[in-house]
Amino acid sequence: MAYTEERAYVELHLAVFLWGFTAILGDLIQLSALTLVWWRVLLTTLSLVFFVRIHRVIREVGWRRFGLLAGIGVVVALHWVTFYGAIKLANASIALICMATTSLFSSLLEPLIVGRPFRWFELLLGIFILPGIWLVVDGVDSGMNIGIGVGLLSAALVSIFTSLNKKYIGSSNPQRITFIELGAATLFLTPFLIPFGGNHFWPAPLDWAYLLVLSLLCTTLTFFLSLRSLSKLSAFASNLTVNLEPVYGIFLAYFLLDDAQELSPNFYWGALLIVTSVFGYTAIMRQLRRRALLT
């Protein structure tokens, strides 16, 4: 069965749905953001040992690409630390809605990184998000503003590593790429565990269960699906689809966590504006494709 663009969208949406659980799990796991991410990337890397030939990884990808993928892995590590940092500093819903701003950063950064032309409608959709961000900030307690800032930094890092993956993965095996990137992320974070990892290093019994779900289902599987989808989708389309993660995540947080008690109606109006950009992009792309077929 051929791997089509439609199948790529289906797999990416499945990955995004599973990503919606990551913020919930991050809120439930009683570890610092840095320690949580270290365990996540370590367990994910170990889960891939059985699927890649470790002794042949460098020979198969080459030293230059290996170095590039390892560098991307560092960006991934920084993204996850800032993402879970935003959860700890604010809450899961705020961290998730900050992630929806990836399309704004992607509209500016992907053309520079990948080397494709700017698209006016991508920039407009990105600008459309700005009032939504203002409403989100206005709809939370001022004590959570640092969490919002960290969440926005995390969103910028997503657009960077997604664009870099789009540029450099080519036809490489997604499992091999995930192994290299998250293995590099593990090594990068290890020296920071003692000074910045917090007081608790070993997860509690329930945290182990959450970490296994987070690592195997919400990381190993989703990373594979999202990387494979990039062979058919643009980084901007991928990032904009990832913006649906807040829809799933906030819905789950509303029922599973106490986030709703900390948020005002303005937060939800802002979230609505941000999520609308996802459907706006889809509609514009559909129109442009129809016009291309007619001409």
TrEMBL record:
Residues in EamA domain copies: 14-137, 146-280
Membrane-spanning ranges: 12-31, 37-54, 66-87, 93-113, 120-137, 143-165, 177-196, 208-227, 234-255, 267-284
KW DNA repair (keyword) present: no
InterPro entries linked to this entry: EamA_dom (IPR000620), EmrE-like (IPR037185)
GO terms for cellular component: membrane
Top-level taxon of origin: Bacteria
Matching SUPFAM superfamilies: Multidrug resistance efflux transporter EmrE (SSF103481)
Keywords: Membrane, Transmembrane, Transmembrane helix
Pfam family, one: EamA
PANTHER family tied to this protein: ACYL-MALONYL CONDENSING ENZYME-RELATED, MOBA-LIKE NTP TRANSFERASE DOMAIN-CONTAINING PROTEIN
Protein name per its UniProtKB record: EamA family transporter
